[in-house]
Amino acid sequence: MEAAAVRLWVKTEPFLVGVLPVPPPARLGPHYLRKMAAYARARAAEGCFPRLSWPRWRHIACGKLQLGRGLAWLYFELFHSLLRRDPPRCLEWAEAEAACANADELERERSKLSVDTLQFLLFLYVQQVNKVSLRRSLIGEEWPSPRTKSPSLTGKSASENKNWNDQDHRAFVQSHLSDMLELLLEPEQLTASSHSTHSSLVSYEAVCALSFLIEGTVKKSRTVRPLHELALWQPCHGQNGYSKVSRAFSFPKLESWLRFCLTTNPFGMTVCLKSGKKLAWAQQVEGTTRRAKIACNTHVVPEVFPMVIMSQVYKQTLAKSSDTLVGAHVRIHRCNESFIYLLSPLRSVTIEKCRNSTFVLGPVQASVHVHSCDNVKVIVVCHRLSLSSTAGCTFYILTPTQPLILSGNQAVSFAPFHTHYPMLEDHMAQVGLATLPNYWDSPMLVCKESGDTSVFRLLPPSDFYTFVIPFEMEGDTTETPGGLPHAYQKALSQREQKVQIWQKTVKEAGLTKDQRKQFQILVENKFYEWLVQTGNRQQLDSLVPPAVGSKQAAG
Question: How many CB atoms lie within 10 A of CB 286?
């Protein structure tokens, strides 16, 4: 059977939740990664190969690559959490980390962690997908090879978000395949300048590492298999140069076979938008030409995380707790003046180009990234939060990692997570998120241009109010998981005390029946004015169930 019988594609997950949406440090470029690969192999006995321990990576990153310690841990933990999907183990790690009384104890706990060295090298290499290209800025092309841009939610080029764009993922791997394979070669297979020769052999272990990025199927099969299993399939040996004697692949043949078999990811954003199931979750608002678009690919095979993509939800309240959302990568795009509740356990969420909206999300196992948004509120329990090019946004969060402030942000506010719904704690357990540790108030400034700490503040307790999710559900959670920090709880108690004093004052005022009626009308009018001024009137109106004829579709 010829090579075309195997269909390969670049996996979405390593790029979508594994690549930081920021240009990588220059010291993580291909030249330095080749040096790192040689260094790690030469020090296998010291905990560098085939698995790289946290202390050895810290030494390489800080001592050799001149990265800061915080950034070194960020990359290590990001990769480690990308592969660690078992919720009980995640909860065990959270418990161990929360039990550490000081930095030394935390460092000892981290020193127990290690990652696959070759896969980690590939993970660091693919951070280059967000590298700023001078060539592109001059002539409008990112990679040397011509390619078709994938459609965005509005029909235009979506190349600005490479973390989501499967066409960019494929183009990147095609353009850099030779470099990545060389990164995985054993020293004796390389020339003095760390390049391959026509006779170089690629080990089976190296192809296993490449399975971090590539998967596929045998023709006419719906079973998704990792690259190394497909590469060992007997009919492919003639094309990929596998030898049972050496248990290795011919470098030129393997590279040629990979290029020939690589195709569009059948579970990526391009296919989701083109042929995914359209969901009628949002209504068309009268008097506007904007049409909400929501698509998903949840009919795909169970080995792949589903995608839900929503765009242009305008002046609506959209609320869903659905099997369609469970474990999904969600992209929310160009939503304005809306309230969106997605109350299911999610894999990742990207919110971009949204304005004047509130997003209440179920627990997010991997990451929440907010980009190019103005005046939005995000309320979420998540493993990681990152933000770039935002203005006037407030984040009410519970997270076991430091929030990442990337470039271009203004007037960011952080506050403790302050709400609950009945299934919240069950959903947190499903994705392996605990209440401790919680770094909501310790953001990390990642980019040099974001080094000014004045870009963010912690929300003053005097401006803090709890948030009530206005929907009935089955479940046991009746309060905010983990409670509130003392200063915020104290502010709420003082405010509640003022309300009680006011109620007592009114009760003891001795008003007549007519005076009480007039007073009630006055209070209701003032309350109505407040609803209109704050925009809460729109939210209350949109909570009224739609008429039977326009009822939102299930899904």
Answer: 6
Please give the C-alpha separations between residue 249 and each of 4, 200, 254, 375, in angstroms, as whole numbers: 18, 9, 6, 54
CA atoms within 13 A on the CB side of 344: 19
pTM of the model: 0.90
Tokens of 164: 């989501």
Confidence of residue 520 (pLDDT cuts 50, 70, 90): confident
Share the mean pLDDT of the chain.
88
β partners of residue 217: 7
Q: What are the pLDDT digits (tens) for 84-137?
A: 778 999 999 999 999 999 999 999 999 999 999 999 999 999 999 998 665 544
| Alpha helices (runs of H) in 249-297, residue ranges in sequence order | 251-261, 269-275
Here the tokens at position 103 are 């930095």
Q: For the CA atoms of 34, 39, 42, 44, what is the dihedral angle to 10 degrees?
A: -110
Residue 145 above 80 pLDDT?
Answer: no
The answer to whether the CB of 553 falls within 8 A of the CB of 280 is yes
For residue 529, the model assigns a pLDDT of 85
Is the predicted pLDDT of residue 418 greater than 90, yes or no? Answer: yes
Long-range contacts of 222-227 (CB under 8 A, 24+ apart): 222/301, 223/301, 224/301, 224/303, 224/304, 227/8
Q: Report residue 81 as tokens.
A: 């959490």
Higher pLDDT, 219 or 325: 325
Tell me the one-letter amino acid at 449. Answer: E
For the chain, the straight-line distance linking the first and the last C-alpha, in angstroms and rounded, comes to: 41
CA distance 272 to 287: 29
The pLDDT score that the predictor gives to residue 422 is: 97
More confident residue, 136 or 370: 370
Q: Tokens in use for 349?
A: 């969420």
Q: How high is the pLDDT of residue 3? A: 43
Select from 312, 294, 318 the least CA-distant residue to 542. Answer: 318
- Residue whose entry in the numeric block shows the structure tokens 């190969």: 49
pLDDT of residue 501: 86
CA dist., res. 409 & res. 446, Å (int): 12
Query: Per DSSP, which regions of 143-239 are E strands?
Result: 201-203, 214-218, 225-226
Per-position DSSP letters for 101-129, written without gaps between them: -SHHHHHHHHTT-EEEHHHHHHHHHHGGG
Q: Cα separation of 96 and 111, whole Å?
A: 12
Asked if 432 contacts 89 with a C-beta cutoff of 8 angstroms, the reply is yes
From 400, 519, 398, 482, select the one nearest 77 (Cα to Cα).
400
Residues in the chain: 555
Across 18-41, b (16+ Cβ under 10 Å) vs e yields: bbbbbbbbeebbbebbbebbeebb
Give the residue among 248, 247, 255 at the shortest CA–CA distance from 214: 255
Closest CA to 361 of 403, 324, 325: 325
Write down the pLDDT at residue 28. 95
Instruction: Tell me the two tokens of residue 64.
Output: 């050799």
Tokens of 23: 């240009």
